[in-house]
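Q: What structure does this chain adopt?
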Amino acid sequence: MNRRTIKINGKELKLMKAHIKPNYKSRTVLSNTTFDYIMLWLRNNCNANDAVFYWKQAMDFYNATISLPEESKPLTAYYSCMNAAKALLSLNGLDMVNISHGVSSSRNDATEVLSKAEITYTGSGVLWELSRLLGESLVKQKYKVQDLLYNIPCIHRTFSLSYSKFSELFIPVSDVCFDMQNVDDKKVHLTFKLDQRYSSGLQRRFINNKFEQTYNDETDDVFYRYKKNFKWDIHDTLANRLSNLVSYHKKVRPYFHYIVGNQMLWYLKKELPSNTHIIDRSSITLIYGVMHWLSELVRYNPMLFNKLMNSRQNWLIKEFLDLGLQQFIDEISAEIAGTNIMVTGYRKD
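A:
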């Protein structure tokens, strides 16, 4: 098949950061001050006084986190995440008054060993509402902190270097876009290419079976496509076409993960049925859970947190606090505005 990407006014349509309401009419936002941009967006685009309040709190806690020493960072980092989440949830019509955190851990059984430390995603609260909004599992579930960290893309390299016995989990992909195979039948699939380092037969076995391998008839390039498709009829109204695209996007978006930076880097999680450490959740809900656990240690068992930071997990926790917080705010920002926000210096393909 030949690859023919679909476009609007000459703009090629690709996978977007937002899960919930990707705005394909918007342009990529270039900004080094994501908090300021979202604050402006909230004030200009909707009557969202509660969301503005929570977003301002998230920004204040974020700025405080940057200047605090490591023994205090988890507390303000978590409250930045929680209030950013509340901004998104309140924007979607939810009442944040007296809402619980949605995650808990036993203070009596606290341990600095990440393979033993456990936290519970409960059946209500902020984290539960985030999970519902993102279409994730709503069942009360207990997780190992180590497993949550293992499944977060932005710290996966750090995790792999810290725990060499764990299999690499993410495969880098490129050229992720929506292609029309045949102009006559108007069927469109999401397609992508595998990174050359992961294109061997062994690595291809780890691709989720919702995707299939195919070829470009003109170049003989090997690429993959999501098996399901949607209709894109240029004679239909733009509103209908975008509605079909957004519905399809919601189906495929959970399979892809990105790392915040000055490039749009996408990853697929490997399909490893025998790997019991894999958690089918987004970075948003994974990061939220670990941030809460660390904040609990700092508040109620600071000496144990100090012991953790003097252990071999020190580097991993530091990287999580820095990179995880950035990733969380970027992903929540994308869900609020529906657009891709990139740092200055980003260059489109």
